[in-house]
Amino acid sequence: MSSKPTITALKADSFGCILLVQQGQQCFIRRDLSVTPWWLRLPAWWLARREARALSALGDMPATPRLLAWDGRHLERSFMHGAAMFKAPPRGDVAYFRQARRLLQQLHRRGIAHNDLAKEANWLVQADGSPGLIDFQLAVVGHPRSRWLRLLAREDLRHLLKHKRTYCPQALTPVEKRLLRRRSWVRELWFATGKPVYRFITRKLLRWEDNEGRGPRQ
């Protein structure tokens, strides 16, 4: 007879609850949408479905979660051991950022743009010091050579380089510095239109304390 699983709540917000499920030696993450308010169920379902699609496209790619199940109300994925970047900052760790860039390249070759890498909570420092990626709710999946995917991939890289500028500035190359100075129309449009709306919804309506991802996430 299998033992009863131990369930620990890691995070809860208006879009559901994130649970750590442990059964014996196995553990995984469950995103539970059943607790979502009725008026947010559609966007919560849309975000979870988006994440499921991205995780499915990732397949067995290293340093990313595995999709275990998605039934429209619960999304389950493999648990990744590690600490968020802001909890274990890779200061002066050139190898971390070199590996992180290779990780992004692998992601983009599969036609996936993460689209939410400004948040340090979405970058993991794993037990061996290598990078990992989580939270693919905003990920975009498409043809890796399409203009849109290449543009989003460049934004992913810019966000990584911003973290590198924070924690390992001496390792920035001249090319990386030029890329950081370039601002795409996507960024300008987001700051002019999308971000004010996002802040109003999350801070005024949902009462989130948004600090660019600085909080416990898995």
From TrEMBL:
NCBIfam families xrefs: PRK12274.1
Annotated organism of origin: Stenotrophomonas koreensis
Domain of life (superkingdom): Bacteria
The protein's name in its UniProt record: Phosphotransferase
